[in-house]
Every structure is written in C-alpha cells, then in structure tokens.
Amino acid sequence: MGNSITKKFSRACEILDRYERSPHKLIPILQDMQAEYNYLPEEIMTFISVALGISPSTVYGVATFYAHFTLEPKGKHIIKVCDGTACHVKKSEGILSALLKLLGLTSDKRTTDDMLFTLETVACLGACGLAPAIVIDEQVHGLMTPAKALELIDTIRREETANV
C-alpha cells in the first residue's frame, strides 16, 4: 500500500516540478494532474495547495469553476450524448436511455463499476447537421440510433477484451 501512495505522490511531484511549483501555473498543473489520474483526487488537490503555498479553497475553486476538470473518477472511455435542440428533436433521449440500460448506469451513477465507461450528457456538440450525435473518446458519431450506439459500445468492449 505504501508503495502505491509513494508512486501517486511522486508523479504529482514530477508535475509540480515541471511547472517550477509556481502558483501562477495552477491551471496547467491541474490539467496535467487530471491527465495523470483521470480526475482530480481530493488528496492530490490538498497536496497541490501545500506544495504551492496556496489555500485548498483556491485549488478547489479553480477545479470546480472550469467544466473541463472533474473531481470524480471517470472511465477509460468517455461517452458524451448530445441533448442540444437538434439532437433532442431527433430523439437523442432514446440513445441515452439505451446506453444507460446497457451500461447499468443511472442519472446518479455515470461510471461503470469496471471503470471502462463514463456516460455524460452535453448541451451541444457542435455537430447539429449530424443530429443526433454522440462523442466517444473525442470521436464524433453522427446520425445515431440507439442500436448504432449499442453497437459502438459492443465494439469497444470486444477490443478491450482482445487487448487483455
């Protein structure tokens, strides 16, 4: 157990050192921490505040102000279902419902137990001409149906199983 804690904080120290432990570089530090840990764990944010000599509330305030940052662990694959006007009119809620059911998720539980998928809804993906649209790992998939969305998830699962 001690080894994993040491490793966790050694990576954090490397990131802090890369930015010369400057409080003026808090946002890029948080970005790199999130890239390293896949979210911003509370103990890492506390560690950052001590290392930079700034209050924990400052670190937390920045982390919660920007939508890019997340304080909850996310899955390896991020699925974003658009619920903007164009997508909503073209029945994006059916896609969301099908994905929630397949992945065993709810409006309160957005990440699968195996940490493979996180399902989010977004106000607009900027792909209105392809409505309804979803994004999986930054790749846009347009003209979606519930069946096509489930097919994409099955493909990812097969690839993950093949890579094990």
Order of strands across the biggest sheet? 2-1-3-4
Give, in order, the helices and strands: HHHHEHHEEEH
**Unreliable segments of 5+ consecutive residues:** none
CATH homologous superfamily grouping of the largest domain: Glutaredoxin
Shape: elongated
- What do we call the CATH topology of the largest domain? Glutaredoxin
Distance between the termini: 24 Å
Biggest β-sheet description? 4 strands, mixed
- Summing up helix and strand content along with how strands pair, one would put the structural category as alpha+beta
- What is the CATH-assigned architecture of the largest domain? 3-Layer(aba) Sandwich
Indicate the CATH class of the largest domain.
Answer: Alpha Beta
**Average pLDDT metric:** 93
Number of strands: 4
Estimate percent helicity: 40-55%
Total number of distinct structural domains = 2
**Total of DSSP H or I helical runs spanning 4+ residues:** 7
Overall description:
The chain is α+β, with helices and mostly antiparallel strands. It has 2 domains: about 1-65, Arc Repressor Mutant, subunit A; about 75-160, Glutaredoxin. About 50% of the residues lie in helices and about 10% in strands. It has 7 helices and 4 strands; from the N terminus they run ααααβααβββα. It has helices at about 1-20, 25-35, 40-50, 55-65, 85-90, 90-105, 145-160, and strands spanning about 75-80, 115-120, 135, 140. The chain has a 4-stranded mixed sheet, with helices on one face. The protein is elongated, with a radius of gyration of 18 Å. The mean pLDDT is about 95.
